[in-house]
Amino acid sequence: MKQVFLLLIVAFFSLNSPAQDTTKASAKKLVIGVTEAPPFVMRKNGNFDGLSISSWNLVNEKLGVEYEFKYYPDLNSLLKGVEKKEVDLSINPITVTDLRMERMDFSQPYFISHTAVARRSGSKIWTYLSNLISWNFISAILILVGVIFIFGFLVWIFERKANPDEFEGGPKGIFQGFWWSAVTMTTVGYGDKSPRTFGGRFVGLIWMFLAIIMISSLTAGIASSLTVQNIHDEINSIKDLDRFEVASVESSSAHELLQQYDIKSKNVINAEQGLDLLINEETNLFVYDQPIIAHIIEQKELQEELEILPKTLKKDYYSYTFPKGSKLLKKIDPVLMGTLKTMEWNTLIEDY
Q1: Which candidate, 183, 200, 284, places its Cα nearest to that of 175?
Q2: Residue 283 sits in which domain range?
Q3: Which of 49, 130, 138, 350 is least enclosed, having the fewest CB within 10 Å?
């Protein structure tokens, strides 16, 4: 009787042991938060597709867990959902930042990107015309005219008495010196005027050699001022954005970057809305993730209207996102790293 009683006690504790709880926990369906971020997460007819979705499918081939997607309308609400543990994780392309690491946990990066700047392409004809009246162009012309005048005036000083037939006295003679200087600089060589005194020829000799150097440098300066992308219009650093009206996606890493440098920006809920602001001329620049901007521009055939500046602002690392202290991170992270080394993943990268 005592043995039967002991067997009943062992059976009771076996049914309620932690191992049984672990089995139930492992069978729990995962809830994965997503929001649209093409080409990484795209939603069509209630189904999800994209590079991030495909990466998760590869990971789950080894994990073999049941899951469901929970859709969020924008990035801000998705990040709040992860932080509040409304979902078990998010596979969206979320950039790892210092501020986010204080609130959430991240896997190893599965994609390296950049924060880019998009702007309107504008009319090339209008750009050329506007550069014609720019200070760069005008200043180059004024410098050129000034140097021509100086050497023409010097020659006139020497020639006005010794060679009055070609370099008369007074304002008319000064103009004749200017004409000679311009003709000499351009190597036209009409021969209608030429210095005959030693001083005049000495000045002319200096001017001939100096003009070769000046005409090449000034030509380059004028050409630069007429270039469609003027050097003063380029954005070389984040601080240069302060001179423009800027828009960015709310709660994105690009938005955090702008806030870090105290650059005011218009907040939009997604990249499509930001690009619409550019098209409608409601902002000058749109700052966001380069692959997402490039994909939307290509899909909507906006290459003639919008362009992405070649210089990026920073490098971004996309990772899976987990609530702070999630035990799933240690389970999923090594599988994700193994997946990134496979041929299937490299094929996916090429396809997208």
Answers
A1: 183
A2: 119-123+235-315
A3: 350
